[in-house]
Amino acid sequence: MSIPILLEAVGIKKYYGKFAALGGVDLKVHANTVHSVIGPNGAGKTTLFHMLTGTKTVSSGRIVFDGQDVTHEPDHRRVQRGIARSFQVTSLFLSLSVRENLRLAAQGIAPAKAMNCWHAPDGPRACAETVASVLAKLGLESFASVPAGNLSHGQQRRLEVGMALAARPKAIFLDEPTSGMGIDDLEDMKRFIRSLRDEHTVILIEHNMNIVMDISDVVTVMQQGRVLAEGLPSEIRSDNRVRAAYLGNMITGGKA
After folding, report:
1. Which of 69, 80, 104, 215 is the most buried (most CB within 10 A)?
2. How far apart are CA 22 and CA 45, in angstroms?
């Protein structure tokens, strides 16, 4: 049985003045897979994420998510449809506890409720079941009451992924989730991301090629705002076009 397509982008272009940041990108992401997007700086990876998640608008093209055309929908509507995202730079409420960070993220799918400052966050507004579930996935139960600012960098990166998970997404976009991590944290994060596909679809930007090759089901390679190659990790590893373009021998280890 073929795996259904959850997200499809057709002919996505993005212009800034006369500069084409994206020159017509086609992408199909299958449900419950880890789909990595790689490429050198300036290849258009983050711009593509902006288009797919609604952070910015496309110049032309079409985006379909879960059977619905979302091309012109703003990011908050896409969140409500089941799209969540983490960013390169950690964005947490550092003075709030881990639990409170996750609660706010869970409430964020319904902005009117999230911004209700007149009632205490108890009962259904506490989102207790969602928060407990995400804490367990993150392995941060013992840190639930600790301010996010007191966590290690690796724990903060995991918490940021957890905040995206708290929105109960169908698809989660992770933009360099291992950035700045020490070697001790990398293996834990790698296993964690891989496990997410049991319940979610993961679209990943990552520069660490060891991680990309170990956890991805499909890898899309971008260069100068276009798709250069796409396939299984083993196919990308041996693709001469990819090697010639920018990866060289770094595809066998390290970063690109």
Report:
1. 215
2. 9
Residue 121 pLDDT greater than 70, yes or no: no
Q: At what angle do helices 128-138 and 153-165 cross, to 10 degrees?
A: 140
Helix axes 98-107, 153-165, angle to 10 degrees: 30
Q: Is the dihedral of CA 74, 75, 79, 81 positive or negative?
A: positive
Instruction: Dump pLDDT digits (tens) for 58-104.
Output: 999 999 999 999 999 999 899 999 999 886 666 788 999 999 999 88
Task: For residue 95, give Cα distances in angstroms to 128, 144, 177, 254.
Answer: 20, 13, 21, 35
pLDDT tens digits for 144-157? Answer: 999 999 999 889 99
> Rounded to 5 degrees, what angle do the CA atoms 211, 101, 134 make?
55
* Class of residue 19 by CB neighbours under 10 A (exposed 0-12, middle 13-18, buried 19+): exposed
User: 1-82+169-256 in CATH: which number?
Assistant: 3.40.50.300
Q: What are the structural domain ranges in the chain?
A: 1-82+169-256, 91-168
> What pLDDT does 68 receive?
97
Residues 6+ apart with CB under 8 A from 143: 98, 151, 155
Cβ–Cβ under 8 Å, residues 66 and 52: no
